[in-house]
Amino acid sequence: MSIFKTNYDLIVVGGGHAGCEAVLAAANLGKKALLVTMNMQTIAQMSCNPAMGGIAKGQIIREIDAMGGGSGIITDKTMIQFKMLNKSKGPAMWSPRSQNDRMRFAEEWRLLLEKNKNIDFWQDMVTELIVKNKTVKGVKTMLGLEIKSKSVVLTNGTFLNGKIHIGEKNFKGGRTGERSSIGLSGFLEKFGFELGRMKTGTPPRIDGRTINYKLLEEDSGDNKIKNFSFLNEHTIKNQKPCFMCYTNKQVHKILGEGFEKSPMFQGRIIAKGPRYCPSIEDKITRFQDKDRHQIFIEPEGWNTCEIYVNGFSTSLPEEIQYKALTKIPGLEKVKMFRPGYAIEYDYFPPTQLKHSLETKLIKNLYFAGQINGTTGYEEAACQGLMAGINAALATDKKGPIVFKRNEAYIGVLIDDLITKGTEEPYRMFTSRAEFRIILRQDNADLRLTPIAESLGLATTKRIKRLKNKQEYINTLEKSIKSNSYKPEEINNILKRNNASEINQKIKIEKILSRPQIKITDLEKTDFFQTFFDKNGKDEEALEQFEINTKYKGYIEKEKINAEKLTRLENIILPENFKYEKLSSISSEGRQKLKEKKPSTIGQASRISGVSPSDISVLLVHLGR
Length: 624
What we know:
By secondary structure, the protein is of the alpha+beta class. It is 36% helix and 17% strand.
């Protein structure tokens, strides 16, 4: 007799960032969902740094929020510091980032999930899947239970055959102090899935009570705090500072003494690690000309004394880590809570997935997060969101939601994974997106919330907030195009900002289009004061309006280019297309096309090894 009497629509395996978003999305779509995790106490654990967002990652969190996900709301509730990165560059590059309270972050996520009556929980290890006629029907656990469901989402993180390395020591584990997940990798391999190994790492955690902060540089948050969630429900009033310090030649010398016991340099780790987040031993080896490297001292929360040593990721012996840390000014008397370590784990090359994140080999089985070769909370969370949505839609026999590259960073990330695959932990950057000026962090709600509304994922409050924002922008746009400034109204402001003065009336839109003039420079003029009296002051809408006005030409040009890409995306390639019969295609192109099996011409054009001439041949063959 089974203890599970519910017929689940969805089972999510893994309680990390991907798993939380997946189970929440499915439950919010009215599906009965079960979250299976090996440890109920570590749901939504921030395994590495206590921070959310960052370059391109901040855009992803805002996109998740616009789609009704939980990451933005939880980030706002647990924020201890906020920064908008890249403000010296154009708005396409602006990226929100926050420091968060690690314990509260996990607690708030768990409470959010527990409030949803469509979500059940079970603590256990999934070792096998129930598969019939190449369709998943549920899971089998270490306790010998069989739990049935219409679909399954695997979000196993670093736990699949995880192996932790600290110096010459290594042991099984999915995270320090936690066991690894065994059995599932081998089961999937028997079904024909290709398997790989990846590596990531984390720095030591130290006791903040033993730091001499007087010798460190304070790194404060922005004066103007913004939110990740467009609902703007939770805004902190106070911020907790981070600090900066630096390594030196003595630190590097001590670290070098441990290289003979380094698992990375001695070949005990063969998996590839994240190139854009190198370990400290990597840094001093690759950048031998540098005498020092920057280290960020990041608090783990409002009340704890635990500190995350950002920039000091390492798998060297713990005594070497400690000795090196004590040679950094300000850390001479430091005590370590736990050492840094490296971890190797199984992943499945994501070219084995459809753009819906459903596997090609087993129907109704979805992969999300580090199992697909990505790194980072944000990258995992957005995959979980999309897998949860698409698994839920599949139970109603509805087609999946797949974002194009010009619609969302989420679309760029998933398309990169499916089309190109990855041999190293994939991390999102703004440079990966072709349409950055369209995919800004400030307009994610305008881009995606209408889609969330059509699915039933947007609350009434969210829809109302979006409509009010859109109406505000439209009203301001009409008003600003029909009103002008006289020289006596505006010349003092122009002069103060080193902009050319005017000698006749000029439209307000043209004044705002000038690069030297910001909307904040104009807010005290009679026009804006009158507008604010009638319509109120919505700073988020004002910022978005200003960006649209200043970059109007660039935005229009990018939209035209995006439309061209969309036309290619609409040209479908048959699943059983016989590429070998097209002799005009290069041999490498034929091989890559046969291997990747792209679903559209657009996807085919982004496969490495497929040339523009190969695409031309395909278009001719398809009569296009």
